[in-house]
Amino acid sequence: MESSPYIFALAAQERGVRDYTILLRDNMYAMHYTRTSFGGPAMHVQSPENLTYRRRSSIWLFYGAAVVSAIAISAVGKVPSLRVPVLALAVLAAGAAILFLLRFLHSNDEREQQINYRALTFAFAGTLIFSLGIGFSQLVGFHPISWLGIPALMLVLWSIGLILYSWRYR
Amino acid sequence: MKTRLRVLRAEMEWSQAELAARVGVARGTINAIETGKYDPSLPLAFKIARAFGKNVEEVFLYAEDQEHGSRA
Q1: Domains of chain B
Q2: Is A14 in CB contact (< 8 Å) with chain B?
Q3: Are the beta carbons of A46 and B31 separated by less than 8 Å?
Q4: What is the pLDDT of residues B5-49, one digit of tens each?
Q5: What is the ipTM metric for this complex?
Q6: What's the CA gap between A48 and A44, in Å, rounded?
Q7: Could you give the CA distance from residue B12 to residue A26 in angstroms, rounded to a whole number?
């Protein structure tokens, strides 16, 4: 679909738009939707549905990979014969979780980044308070918790923060 | 911050999803701006205003009494 600037200038004049670059951009969106609806290659314009799908799929894949990694780490000591492959699975799943987390963060718009920033602050403060509490309780004789407890707690608090702040900004 | 987004969108017969696609954000963000739950950044405010072919101050109205009530 080729269009000359002259046609856009005329169309802009007709619509009373001072800057015809707005119309050029409108045309880009129109081309995107027209081409994709006829099975043609899509231009690099993200629709909100795509962004939402990418965001949701990334977060669920992240949780899945994190759970697989946690299960594999806890199983390392229990199956001595499969120690190396289970450990490799744990590391690979943890790497995948990090990649999915980055993908999730990149698919956020500015409001979602704000939600994520607040959720991270919430998780940081919560983990700090919890780990100080655990540290003091160990001084008076409580049993120490596993090192896996801290990342798990951070993950849980971050998830709670995401839900809370998503609800607040809705 | 008050906004005329809903009115302008109705004039253009755009859905929230359509406006969101034009400015490159999620539909929920447009909804949050319209309901006053979220104040957009300056670049996003300019993008939204340009999508309607208007100046920022024609779309967003700053209310001084809300200065301390903003959540964003």
Answers
A1: 2-63 (1.10.260.40)
A2: no
A3: no
A4: 999 999 999 999 999 999 999 899 999 999 989 999 999 999 999
A5: 0.80
A6: 13
A7: 13
Nearest to B29 among A46, A49, A109 (CB): A109
The span from the CA of A34 to the CA of A26, in Å, is 12
Contacting residues of A for B26, CB less than 8 Å apart: 48, 51-52, 55, 109, 111-112
Alpha-carbon separation of residue A122 from A40, A104, A115, A143, A160 (angstroms): 45, 18, 10, 26, 9
CA-CA distance, B45 to A11, in Å (whole number)?
Answer: 25
- pTM for the structure as a whole: 0.67
Residue B26 and residue B20 in contact, taking contact as beta carbons nearer than 8 Å: yes
How many angstroms separate the CA of residue A73 from the nearest CA in chain B?
36
Chain A residues with CB under 8 Å of B50 CB are 19, 22
Q: Does B47 touch chain A (CB under 8 A)?
A: no
Chain B neighbours among A 141-170 (CB < 8 Å)? 168-170
Residues in chain A: 170
> Which residues of A fall within a CB distance of 8 Å from B44?
110
Check: CB of residue A153 under 8 Å from CB of residue A98.
no
Asked if B1 contacts B60 with a C-beta cutoff of 8 angstroms, the reply is yes
Question: A18, A9 in Cβ contact below 8 A?
Answer: no
List the single residue in B20, B37, B44 with the smallest CB-CB distance to A169. Answer: B37
Give every CB contact of residue A89 below 8 A, 6+ residues apart in sequence. Answer: A68, A69, A72
Domain residue ranges in chain A: 5-37, 48-106, 108-170
